[in-house]
Design goal:
It holds the Pfam family EF_EFCAB10_C. This protein is mostly helical and 135 residues long. It contains seven helices and two strands, in the order H-H-H-H-E-H-E-H-H. A two-stranded antiparallel ribbon has the order 1-2. Helix 3 packs across helix 7 and helix 4 packs across helix 6. The longest helix has 18 residues.
């Protein structure tokens, strides 16, 4: 049993050290968001762009435009109230790779409007450019 526990700990440490879970979450989110016809080719191109961004320091392109942000907000606003909950807001940022597990957002008790969501997506410090630098 002890040997298995050590291997599991080593595996977990490896994944954390190399931020593999964050990378896989980002790739999965991008894949589900864009739904390309050729998913393997798309994933390869994203990985290649991340590699180039890291090597050159050139910003990784962020593909979320206004329409994409509105669409994502509307998917979360299932009751069509024009607002989403703080939990939905936080999960939306995580899905886009704009929020790490370490980051703490303060819930001010107000519902999140499209304008606030859009502003956060557009200016959030953990943008894909920052994401690319992590790897």
């Amino acid at each position: 049993m002890q040997a298995g526990g050590n291997r599991e700990l080593e595996a977990r440490n490896y994944l954390e050290k190399h931020r593999i879970m964050e990378l896989l979450n980002y790739l999965t989110s991008a894949l589900l968001f864009f739904r390309p016809e050729k998913p393997r080719e798309y994933l390869i191109s994203v990985l290649e762009r991340l590699r180039i961004a890291k090597i050159t320091g050139v910003a990784f392109p962020f593909f979320m435009d206004h329409c994409n942000i509105v669409s994502m907000f509307e998917m979360m606003d299932t009751s069509d109230k024009g607002t989403i909950s703080f939990v939905q807001y936080k999960e939306g940022l995580k899905t886009l790779g704009l929020l790490n597990e370490d980051e703490v957002l303060k819930d001010d008790g107000h519902a999140i409007t499209l304008e606030k969501f859009r502003a956060e997506v557009c200016i959030h410090p953990a943008s894909p450019q920052a994401f690319a630098r992590k790897f």
